[in-house]
């Protein structure tokens, strides 16, 4: 490899067909779309359940939503292995927090923890696009939306993932009066978490399996 | 705090302080450099190698960046009471059919089987890890064994951990088995740690060639005979279309009764289809 490509620019080596080996990337894009809408005293979170790579569907039933407490869930799209690692870590941090403080982590606290966790990996980022949603300390609906390296803000509604370009304009247009049933979605199934003061309710909505 | 003497010999290397240097007095610090294992008695500079002279043109030493001996697709389906895994027995060295009787399915314990595609030596390392787990279960002697879900969870962490070190295990693994409560488990994990469970899985070419067949014909309550027929059909399609495969296969079953890895066998094939002879006859514009 060294002798063949020495002095040949990378792009020229590719064009001349010198590349000899399979190569790999530590990242993949497994698609998926997530969204959350905050109400006065409730919050609705939904995510598609398809997991794909390129044009291949890996599975039609894999959850992207982590329910941390009665008042907080995290929905993530992006690279599935990073997403699972992140969820596993947040789950364990939540358990540790409960052992230390004898109460579940609040949604704003979880939101800050998620930001710190993502920024901690600034130079080998977790390729995940997250929404942290639930009820805040006053019982109001809260949606926090992130980029991959931990920048975040609280918003009234948000969507992330492969379908966000299609979804965000619809949300912007419609969510002066929120109704998640109007949201266009593709994928196999949508799982919907409705968070109210009574707790968390999970629903499923079947989509075209195309 | 009292200085803690170390047990290191001064001969071990620079920076490894023996008892003498643990208490740094001026008597020790001010005297001229003494001969050590690193500094010759002649007083000359120690022999050392300039790293820039031995550095390869590609930069510093790198981890495994590509596979050598590889196995191709692994196929697996759930059926009534168990899971069935199948693959061929080839270890390919590039496109050379180098090793033709490699068994790529292993029994981890009475309830779990693992099959692998990708770099064979990495799979042999993974096999050793799993053997250690099984040995540990045996030694503990409480009758408890890891279930397939636990083995799968472990493997997902191993694979993800190694990709995080930029030194991946170049495999796609399939884990199948039956839990203590009778639940059938089937999952797969890739070289960068992506993983999922499903009613049917296939790695590599199988994801494109076999899974469409599985989607049409597989159901979780299908009979063992139907599952085996489906896998044989899928293996045949993979053999027709995947040049890095051979007509020597193994099928393994993991059921409540245990794991049974079958003997290698060959499939009936037919190569005189007209479409094989003139594959582009109806594909206008193809060559």
TrEMBL record, chain A:
Its main location: cytoplasm. InterPro entries: Ntn_hydrolases_N, Proteasome_bsu_CS, Proteasome_sua/b, Proteasome_suB-type. Belongs to the peptidase T1B family. Component of the proteasome complex. SUPFAM superfamilies: N-terminal nucleophile aminohydrolases (Ntn hydrolases). It is found in: Cytoplasm; Nucleus. GO terms for cellular component: cytoplasm; nucleus; proteasome core complex. Gene3D superfamilies: Glutamine Phosphoribosylpyrophosphate, subunit 1, domain 1 (3.60.20.10). It holds the Pfam family Proteasome. This is Proteasome subunit beta. Keywords: Cytoplasm, Nucleus, Proteasome. PANTHER family: METALLOPROTEASE TLDD, PROTEASOME SUBUNIT BETA TYPE-1. Component of the proteasome, a multicatalytic proteinase complex which is characterized by its ability to cleave peptides with Arg, Phe, Tyr, Leu, and Glu adjacent to the leaving group at neutral or slightly basic pH. The proteasome has an ATP-dependent proteolytic activity. One of its GO terms (biological process) is proteolysis involved in protein catabolic process.
UniProtKB/TrEMBL annotation, chain B:
SUPFAM superfamilies: N-terminal nucleophile aminohydrolases (Ntn hydrolases). It is found in: Cytoplasm; Nucleus. GO terms for biological process: proteolysis involved in protein catabolic process. GO terms for cellular component: cytoplasm; nucleus; proteasome core complex. Signal peptide: none annotated. Keywords: Cytoplasm, Nucleus, Proteasome. Its main location: cytoplasm. Gene3D superfamilies: Glutamine Phosphoribosylpyrophosphate, subunit 1, domain 1 (3.60.20.10). It comes from the Eukaryota. It holds the Pfam family Proteasome. CDD domains: proteasome_beta_type_4. Belongs to the peptidase T1B family. Component of the proteasome complex. Component of the proteasome, a multicatalytic proteinase complex which is characterized by its ability to cleave peptides with Arg, Phe, Tyr, Leu, and Glu adjacent to the leaving group at neutral or slightly basic pH. The proteasome has an ATP-dependent proteolytic activity. This is Proteasome subunit beta. It comes from Raphidocelis subcapitata.
């Amino acid at each position: 490899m060294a002798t063949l490509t020495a002095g040949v620019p990378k792009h020229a080596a590719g064009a001349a067909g010198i590349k000899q080996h399979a190569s790999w990337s530590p990242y993949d894009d497994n698609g998926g779309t997530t969204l959350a809408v905050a109400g006065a005293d409730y919050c609705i979170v939904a995510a598609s359940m398809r997991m794909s790579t390129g044009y291949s569907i890996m599975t039609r039933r894999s959850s992207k939503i982590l329910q941390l407490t009665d008042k907080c869930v995290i929905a993530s799209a992006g690279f599935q292995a990073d997403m699972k690692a992140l969820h596993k870590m947040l789950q364990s941090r939540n358990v540790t927090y409960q052992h230390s403080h004898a109460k579940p982590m609040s949604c704003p606290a979880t939101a800050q923890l998620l930001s710190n966790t993502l920024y901690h990996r600034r130079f080998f980022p977790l390729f995940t696009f997250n929404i942290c949603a639930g009820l805040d300390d006053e019982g109001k609906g809260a949606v926090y939306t992130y980029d991959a390296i931990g920048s975040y803000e609280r918003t009234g509604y948000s969507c992330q993932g492969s379908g966000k370009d299609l979804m965000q304009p619809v949300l912007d247009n419609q969510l002066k009066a929120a109704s998640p049933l109007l949201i266009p979605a593709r994928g196999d199934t949508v799982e919907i978490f409705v968070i109210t003061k009574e707790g968390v309710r999970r629903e499923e909505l079947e989509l075209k399996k195309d | 705090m009292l200085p803690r003497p170390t047990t290191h010999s001064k001969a071990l290397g620079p920076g490894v302080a023996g008892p003498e240097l643990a208490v740094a007095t001026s008597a020790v610090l001010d005297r001229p450099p003494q001969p050590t294992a690193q500094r010759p008695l002649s007083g000359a500079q120690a022999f050392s190698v300039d790293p820039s002279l031995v550095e390869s043109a590609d930069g510093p030493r790198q981890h495994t960046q590509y596979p050598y001996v590889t196995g191709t697709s692994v196929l697996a389906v759930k059926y009534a009471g168990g899971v069935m895994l199948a693959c061929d027995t080839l270890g390919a060295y590039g496109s050379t059919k180098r090793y033709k009787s490699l068994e790529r399915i292993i029994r981890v314990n009475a309830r779990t089987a693992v099959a692998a595609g990708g770099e064979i030596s990495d799979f042999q390392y993974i096999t050793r890890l799993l053997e250690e787990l099984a040995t540990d279960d045996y030694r503990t002697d409480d009758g408890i064994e890891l279930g397939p879900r636990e083995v799968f969870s472990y493997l997902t962490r191993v694979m993800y951990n190694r990709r995080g070190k930029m030194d991946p295990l170049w495999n796609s693994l399939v884990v199948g088995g039956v839990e203590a409560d009778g639940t059938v488990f089937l999952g797969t994990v890739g070289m960068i740690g992506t993983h999922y469970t499903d009613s049917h899985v296939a790695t590599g070419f199988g994801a494109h060639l076999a899974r469409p067949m599985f989607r049409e014909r597989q159901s979780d309550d299908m009979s063992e005979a139907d599952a085996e027929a489906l896998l044989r059909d899928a293996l045949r399609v993979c053999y027709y279309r995947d040049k890095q495969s051979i007509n020597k296969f193994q099928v393994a079953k993991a059921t409540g009764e245990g794991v049974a890895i079958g003997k290698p066998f060959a499939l009936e094939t037919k190569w005189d289809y007209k479409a094989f002879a003139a594959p582009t006859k109806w594909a206008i514009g193809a060559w």
